[in-house]
Request: fold
Amino acid sequence: MTGVDPEVAQHRLSISPDARPVKQKPRRQAPDRQLAIREEVDQLLAVSFIEEARYPRWLSNVDLVRKHNRNWRMCVDYTSLNNACPKGCYPLPKIDQLVDATAGHARLSFMDAFSGYNQIRIAPEDQEHTAFLTDQGVYFYKVMPFGLKNVGATYQRTVNKMFAHQIGRNMEVYVDDLIVKSQEARTHLTDLVETFATLRRFGMRLNPAKCAFGVTSGKFLGFIIHERGIDANPEKVQAIVNMQSPRTIKDLQRLNGRLVAMSRFLARSGDRCLPFFRALKNPKNFQWTAEYEEAFKQMKQHLASLPRLASVSPGEKIGLYLAASQHAVSSILIKENSGEQLPVYYVSHVLNGPEERYPPIEKLALALVLSARKLRPYIQAHPVEVITNQPLRHVLSKFDVAGRLLKWAVELGEHDTEDTDLEQPPEPWVLHVDGSANSKGVGAGLVLRSPDGRSFERSLRFGFQATNNETEYEALLAGLRLALEMQVDALHVLTDSQLVAEQLSGGYEARDPVMAKYLAGENERADALAKLASKPAPGVRPEIDELPARAIEIVAAVSGGAPITWVQELLCFKRDGTLPPDEAVARRLCRTHAWYSEVSGQLYKRPFTYPLLRCLEPDEAQTVLAEVHGRVYGEHIGGRTLAHKILRQGYYWPTMCRDTKAYVQRCSSCQEHARTPWQPAIPLTPIDCAWPFAQWGLDLLGPFPLASGQRKYIVVGVDYFTKWVEAEPLATITERQMEKFVWRNLVTRFGLPKTIITDNGPQFAGRRFREFCASHGIQLRFSSVAHPQTNGLAEVTNRSILDGLKRRVSAARLAWTDKLPSVLWSLRTTPKIATGESPYSLAFGIEAVLPPEVAIATLRMRNYDEKIMNEGLRAGLDLLEERRANAHLKALSYKRAVARVYNRKVRPRPIKLDDLVLRNTEVSDPTCARGKMAPKWEGPYRVDKIV
Reply:
C-alpha cells in the first residue's frame, strides 16, 4: 500500500477515556445503492485501504451522496465516533491570504492529491474504531477516511511539514489543493522540479485529471487568480444570477449565504443586502415583497460587472476608503498603480440597534475598527492611508475622549495608519446668460462670476437671424465655452428663459426641430467648439464677439461622418466620459467599460484566460472571419470553434459567437459538406398492424458471394404482426422474381395481404409489380427516399439474417444458401421483445419442437400422449385469438415506449413554401460514384409544395 510514510504522519483518534462505544443500528439501502456500496468496498479491498473487522467496539453506517456526474460517493456516518473525539486546534490557512499570496504571478501550476486523505494511514491501535457496516460484512479503514473529525487538520499538518521550505516562497497549500507559483515564467520549471522531488521523497501521489501545469490563470479555493489580480468565480456569480426569487425562508438563507461568499467583491454589500437581512428577522411571517424583488434585481445587475481585485506586493502602501450610511458602514482597500486606484478588498457591516444612532464621525470610526479587524493581515504588513471626509485622527487622538472612542483608539494604536481628509467639492461658479432678438439685430450677453467675486463679461453679436429662444441657447453655449477656457470645475447657470431651463431639466419636451438639436447635443457641441475655438489668456475679454453661424451648424460640420462604432464609443467614454444618446447603450457602457483598456490608441479587452485581446471594428472583424475560417490556414471549422480560435489569436468583439455562427451558416462550402444531422426532425410514428399476415415488409439483401445456381441476393419478407420471416435466395432481382416470391411465399401460404411496404427500388416500383399488387387488391406503399427507417422492421430483420449467416458460414462463405433455412428457423422460434411471443406461436398457437428436446427430452416430450396433445392443441387454437390480442397490446406499449425515448431527441426543422433547401446527395448518387471528396449536399432548391 503506497502513501505517506507512517514515520512522517499518522492520524490518531484520541477518543475520550470516558466515552461509551456506540454501535449504530443497520440502515437498509435500495438495490442500486447496495450495488454502488459493493463496488466501492471491492475497490477499497483491492488496494488494501480497508480490512474485515471481527469484533469492533464502534460501528457506523454507510451513507451515499450524489456526485456531480450523478454517480454515488460512499461515505461513513462517523457522528457517534466524532462526538467522542476532542476537536483539534491545528489551524487551517486563511483562504483570503492564500489567494492574495498566489495572485500576481506569471506562471501557476494547480495540483490535487489523488484521494489525498487515503494516503495517510491511521494509527494501528485506532483502525478498528473506524469500522462500518455493509451488506457484505463489517470493515475498518487502515487509511484516513473522509468524515472523521480532525482529518483535515492532520492532512494540513502533513503537507505543511512536507513543503515547509517552499510554502510562501514558490508554493501555497490548502489541505489537498497544491499550487506552485513563479514570478517569472522561466523559473517555473525549476520550481516544479523542486516540488516533485518533495512529492517523491514523501511518497505522495497526484491526480493527473485534476492537475494543470504552467498556466497563467486558474481556479483556486473558489477564486479565479492570474497575474493581473483576482476575479470572482463565474460559476458562483451565475448561481446567484440564475436564482429565482426566494419563496421560502430557506431560499432566502441560501441567497444570503451565496452573497456572503461573494462579499469580498461587493461594494457596500451591507446597504445592498439590507432588505434580505431584514426579511430574516421575522421568519414565521416571511413574505417576498416588491421592495425585496427590486433589491434582488439591482443585486443581479451589480453582479454583472464585478470588479477585478488587485494583489498587493510586500511593503506596498495601500489606502482605505471609509463610508457610512444610515444603516451600514463600508470600506474599500485599494492600491495605486500608474495613477489608477485598484480595489483589493471590500468590507461592509450592517449596523445593529444602537449603532444606527451613532453620530457620523463615530460610524466612520466603527468602520475603521471593523475594517482593521477584518483586514488585519493587510494593515499589519503595509502602511495604510485612511481616506475619509471627516477629521477621524483628530477625534481619536483627543485627550478627553472617553467610552467606545477611547477603546477604539487603543485598539487602532498598534497599526501604522495615516489619516487623509477627502477634498470637499469645489464651490461652483455662477453663469448669467441672456439673449435678445429685435429688428436691429440679434445678440446675447453673459457674465461669469467666480467664488471669490471676480467677474468676466462677454457680449455676442450674431451674424444670422434667430428667435429669442435660439439666442438664449446660443448665449448658454457661449457661456459654457468661456467656463471651459477658465477651467471651471463646477458651474451654476442662471437664465431668464423658462423654456430653456425646463427643456434642459426635462420638464418640457423640445418639439421644434431646431430646439431639439440644441437640447440633444449640448455636451457634444460644447466639447467640439471648445476644441475648435482659440483659447485667449484668462482675463482678456473682447468687448463684442462675432458669431457667424449657429453652434449646432458648426458642430454638424465638424462631427459629421461615418456612424460611430462600438470601439469608438468605448474610447470616447474612457477618454472624456462621453456617453452615446441611446440610454440602453449608455447603461451598457457604464457597466462594462472596466473590462477594457486603451493601449497606444487601441482598445483592448481584459479576458479571463488569454492575454489582452485587441477589439476589432466591424469591417476588421469581417476580415478576420474570412481569413481564419476559409483562407490560407482556415479549415472551415464550426462557429463555436471559430470563435475560440479567433480569441486565441488575440481578437475580440462583442458579438463574436453570433457572428461566427452566422458566418459559418452562410458559407456555401460548409453547407455542401455539412454532416448529416443525427437528431430526428419529426416525432416517431410507429407502424401498427392488428392482424396476422395482413401487412408485410419486403426488402433485398446482398450481393453475397456467388453460391450455387448463381444466387447472390436474398429477398426478405417479414410480417408486421407476428414478425414471421420469409426469405429466398435469388440469382437476379427483377420484377418477375418479386412477383413470384410474393405469390409463392406469401399469398399461397398466408393469404392475400392487405399492405406491402417496400423501398423505392425498380424491382418494387416498376409497372409490372404495381399491376400485380393492384390486381390482387394489395396496397403497395413505399418508404421515404433515402430513408430506410420507414421500413424499419424489414431493415432490422435484414441485419439479423446477415449476422446469423456470418456466424454460421465462417470460412465456407459460398455455402450461405445452405445455412439460410436454419437462420430463418431461429428467427421464427425466438420470442420477440415487442410481443413477448415467438412468431411461430403467434402463427400456429403452439411453440415449435426444437432439436434439443429430442436429444434431451423435456416434460412434454417425455409424457407425450397423442390424445392429450391433440386436446391441448385444440385448446391452444381456441385461445389463440386472446393470445394474439395480448401480443398486440404488448407491441403497442413497446412502440409507445420506444417513441417516447426517440421523441426526446427530436429537433424540429420546419420547412415552409419558398424556402431554399439543400438535398442529400444519396438521392442523386446512391452508389457514391462521385467519390469521397464529393459534397454531401446539393442545391439549393426552392420548396414548391409540401405534401
Observations:
- Residues 514-544, 551-562 have pLDDT under 50 and may be disordered.
